[in-house]
Amino acid sequence: MTIQVGDRLPAGTLYEYIEVATEGCPVGPAAVEVDQAAAGKKIALFGLPGAFTPTCSAKHLPGYLEHYDALRKAGFDEIWCLSVNDAFVMGAWGREQGTQGKVRMLGDGSATFTKALGLALDLESRGFGTRMQRFSAIVVDGVVKALNVEAGGKFEVSDAETLLKQAEKAINYLP
Prior knowledge:
The chain is of the alpha+beta class. 29% of the residues lie in helices and 29% in strands. The protein has helices at 34-38, 54-66, 68-73, 87-97, 112-117, 160-169, and strands at 13-18, 28-33, 42-48, 78-83, 103-107, 120-123, 129-132, 135-140, 143-149. The chain has a seven-stranded mixed β-sheet with strand order 2-1-5-4-3-8-9. The protein has a two-stranded antiparallel ribbon with strand order 6-7. A hairpin with a 2-residue loop joins strand 8 (135-140) and strand 9. The radius of gyration is 15 Å and the shape is globular. The mean pLDDT is 89.
């Protein structure tokens, strides 16, 4: 079953590649427990089929970077990009796209979290295996307040502009 507005994000572990070591956080893939990372935060969350893919690289992720300042002004604490890729691939893609300090690039290499969201996309016949359906969501303290799931092959409702308009209309979601 697909996650719905009003649902809490499922518990799960995603992975983020850390470029620079800090106290308690060594270089390399770091586990991110979703429930802990989302606690007390307003998150602009978006998921996509894969790093380095045409629409994801040319439109989806760049739109969130372009609207970073407006999203922060609208009250979002963080922006998360999810994909069924490992942390190394997400880290490399993030470096290429210039996401550092703006968008958290979170990998779900085994698609476990993707399946828990009910957003798995079977692209086995095309040689891609299990991927994530393209979507965006407003998440407040771990609860989904708005959800936009794309129809197959589309990029119409999960963009940064749509999420920003929803956040601006929904004053009760954000401060």
